[in-house]
Amino acid sequence: MVAILKRELSSYFSSAIAYIFMAVFFAFAGLFFLFACLFSNTSSLAGVFSNMLTVIALTIPIITMKSFSDEKRQKTDQALLTAPTSLFEIVVGKFLGAFVLFAICCCIFPVFGLIISIFTTPDWVVILCTTFGFLLVGGAFIAINVFVSSLTEMQVISAIVGMGIGLAITLLGGIHQSIEIDWIANFLKSISFAVHYEDFTNGLLDLSGVVFFLSVIALFLFFTIRIFERKRWS
């Protein structure tokens, strides 16, 4: 697993993918911080985090599109399937490679807190809880997009489908409020990323939210493993 993780990180930074993702992430985070905090004269990072959810929904497919699609295109997936490494280690290693890159980018949020501390006392509990929740949301998006990448050998298709799913998940946060049929509204609310993420933004370490996002991660990594198990035995 560690070898796969190192290989993934090396492939990100030996190409332009990591630098493009980090540049886009930091650029949008910086702009949101500038307008939502500094220009608005507030110490709350709520506006930054809420806007960044849409950004990661659309940009995470950039780093995950090559996870398995590129392996299929170059026909190196057969080497992975026959390597003396379990499918679990391969899939989790690729997931962790993308997640570590994402986590590096998220380090910018405590930096924003330090900048705010120059002018006033920031609410570190809220900042750190929201950052933790943001990492969980990002991990869920990464797991979903790694699964999407396992379904096709075309990186562009993987990215477009991943962006579409990410946008749909983001929009789902407000759809349940307009549904009049209770059971449908409750179901949509129960699977809404925004709803489970909301408590983190209030400085609450919500156990149900942690379980939800970890379950999404585990479920889609399991689906990815099953895809390659079928291929290995076919």
Question: Helices and strands in order, then pairings?
Answer:
Layout (H helix, E strand, L loop, with lengths): L1 H12 L3 H22 L7 H19 L4 H5 L3 H6 L4 H20 L1 H10 L6 H26 L5 H21 L6 H9 L2 H9 L5 H27 L1
Helix pairs in contact: 1-6, 2-3, 2-7, 3-8, 3-9, 6-8, 6-12, 8-9, 8-11, 8-12, 11-12
Radius of gyration: 19 Å
Order of helices and strands: HHHHHHHHHHHH
Shape: globular
How many strands, what sense, and barrel or not for the largest sheet? none
| Low-confidence regions | none
Q: Which structural class is indicated by helix and strand composition?
A: mainly alpha
This entry's quaternary arrangement is single chain
Strand segment tally: 0
Mean pLDDT: 87
Distance between the termini: 24 Å
Percent helix range? over 70%
Count the DSSP helices. Answer: 12
Beta content:
under 5%
Nutshell version of this structure?
By secondary structure, the chain is mainly alpha-helical. It is built from 12 helices and no strands. Helix 3 runs antiparallel to helix 9.
Explain the overall architecture.
79% of the residues lie in helices and 0% in strands. The protein contains twelve helices and no strands. The longest helix is centred in the C-terminal third of the chain and has 27 residues, at 207-233. It starts with a helix and ends with a helix.
Describe this protein with a few key phrases.
0% strand; globular; mainly alpha; 234 residues; 12 helices
